[in-house]
Amino acid sequence: MLGLLRKIDFLKSWFGDEVSAAARAKERLRIVLIQDQSSISPDLLEVLREEMIGVVSRYLEIDLPHLEMGIERKEESIALAATIPIVRIRQEGRALLAETATETNSNNNGMGKMERRHRRSRRHYR
Amino acid sequence: MGKAFVITSGKGGVGKTTCTANLGAGFASMGKKVILIDADIGLRNLDLVLGLENRIVFDLVDVVEGKCRSFRQAMIKDKRFDNLYLIPASQSRDKEAVTPEQMRDLCDTLKQEFDYVLIDCPAGIEHGFKNAIAGAEEAILVTTPEVSAVRDADRIIGLLEAEEKGAPRLILNRVRKDMVRKGQMMSIDDVQEILNVKLLGIVPEDEAIVVSSNKGEPVVLNETSKAGKAYREILQRLESPSDLSLLPSMTDGSEGLIGRLFRFFAKAEA
Ligand SMILES: Nc1ncnc2c1ncn2[C@@H]1O[C@H](COP(=O)(O)OP(=O)(O)OP(=O)(O)O)[C@@H](O)[C@H]1O
Ligand SMILES: [Mg+2]
């Protein structure tokens, strides 16, 4: 009987119980590597900011001092998030919007929140 | 024209030097002309693992600084093979004493004469790493199945990519079948899935490695050891990359349910 119990313990160590250490390691690594791989340098962020201001300013007059832009980390994804307060819509912008309004359902209400999911998993393009 | 490989890892102590010594001795035993470069300036070790520590006169820094007439003056001939040579690291200088350009030039010169140039990379991702990879066309990435080593290996993959070295091939070192079977250690599949690079080989945890480094005799020459066998398989794969029959054998203990049950009942009966 005791022998059998020992065998059961032995079985448990083979099949169940301790599967967690390796599985935990793998899961933790998966998440930490997403973070490692998505680190965006301040230089790149600055270039992005400048170019985005350029594009948006063609259409909208923006409240530059209150512009916020940064990387947001969530559990499993990384987002480039920008909040761009608008002072007014430029004349050129209105004209252009009117032109394209028929094709695309363009949305030009007040605050523009741009969010782009940036999921970098090197795995997919390496 | 020979080929230059760098053996690298990111994390320290995972087995780069052991691997360089064994691949070098292994290629030499196959009749190839091989030169090893210890690029771990300040922490010279490859000489010791090969048992060549008493023969050093000039070193890598002397070569690039032109203190000796040519690399030939600094290279040490192995005791066992006269087609195996080592250019030792300098012990008293620091890593900034060499530049990537100098390493590239040296490797180009060596490739004219040797079939294989193997570069033992220091741990880390700084200057020493950049030097070590500069002259190599391919990287061999060594890691153990531990979280920190695998994470650092992933960093190295990214850096190699940035330096346009392409994807390295992976050696998974110090694998313990018993622990993998119990789910205590990540398996080969786990690590490969995370890193997503080609597997070059699996080296088990083996006491014979410790014994052989203590004696200064590479384990690859030990016919009976498990690690020696693993290194010989890796050498075959490096020699003929297209031979599919040489794919790494999954001897990590993923023995399969039937095998496990069979062994269990065999034991229960005894
Ligand atoms: N498969 C193995 N089984 C048992 N011991 C091993 C194995 N591989 C390496 N070792 C031992 O691990 C230690 C570190 O190995 P080694 O010096 O080759 O690592 P390294 O990556 O070159 O280290 P460093 O980053 O300090 O240069 C040594 O003592 C070596 O004998
Ligand atoms: Mg070393």
Question: In summary, what is this structure?
Answer:
The complex is a heterodimer of chains A (126) and B (270). With 126 residues, chain A is α+β, with helices and mostly antiparallel strands. Chain A has helices at residues 2-15, 19-37, 42-57, 91-101; strands at residues 60-62, 68-73, 78-84, 86-89, 112-118.
Give structural notes.
The complex is a heterodimer of chains A (126) and B (270). Chain A has helices at 2-15, 19-37, 42-57, 91-101, and strands spanning 60-62, 68-73, 78-84, 86-89, 112-118. By secondary structure, chain A is an alpha+beta fold. Chain A folds into 2 domains: 2-35; 40-125, no CATH class. Chain A has a 3-stranded antiparallel beta sheet with strand order 2-3-5, with no helix packed on it. A two-stranded antiparallel sheet of chain A has the order 1-4. In chain A, a hairpin with a 4-residue loop joins strand 2 (68-73) and strand 3 (78-84). The longest helix of chain A is centred in the N-terminal third of the chain and has 19 residues, at 19-37. The radius of gyration of chain A is 26 Å and the shape is elongated. In chain A, 4% of the residues are buried. With 270 residues, chain B is α/β, with parallel strands linked by helices. Chain B has one domain (3-269): Rossmann fold (3-Layer(aba) Sandwich), CATH 3.40.50. Helices cover 42% and strands 15% of the residues of chain B. Chain B contains 12 helices and 8 strands. The relative contact order of chain B is 0.17. The site of adenosine-5'-triphosphate has 20 residues of chain B, from helix 1, strand 7 and helix 10.
